[in-house]
Write a structure and sequence with these properties.
The protein is mainly alpha-helical and 65 residues long. It has 2 helices and no strands. It has one domain. It starts with 7 loop residues before the first helix and ends with a helix. 0% of the residues are buried.
Length: 65
């Protein structure tokens, strides 16, 4: 079975969820490193997605000119 493709909106939602969890209480030290790594991955995913989308939009606009 193929893995579900992560969407930008899902990544943002997961980042917000993890941050709220960390802000609302003392972080679980046993899982803190995993959460920080996951947020870092999600942030990079979002940056890459935005960059790719920007490039695609610029190419589309340039083709129409």
């Amino acid at each position: 079975m193929a893995a579900k493709k992560l969407l930008y909106s899902e990544a943002i939602s997961e980042i917000e969820s993890i941050l709220m969890e960390l802000e609302n209480g003392e972080p679980d030290v046993d899982h803190l490193s995993e959460k920080v790594k996951r947020v870092n991955y999600l942030i990079q995913f979002c940056k890459d997605t935005l960059s790719k989308t920007e490039s695609e939009i610029e190419m589309t606009i340039n083709k129409s000119n």
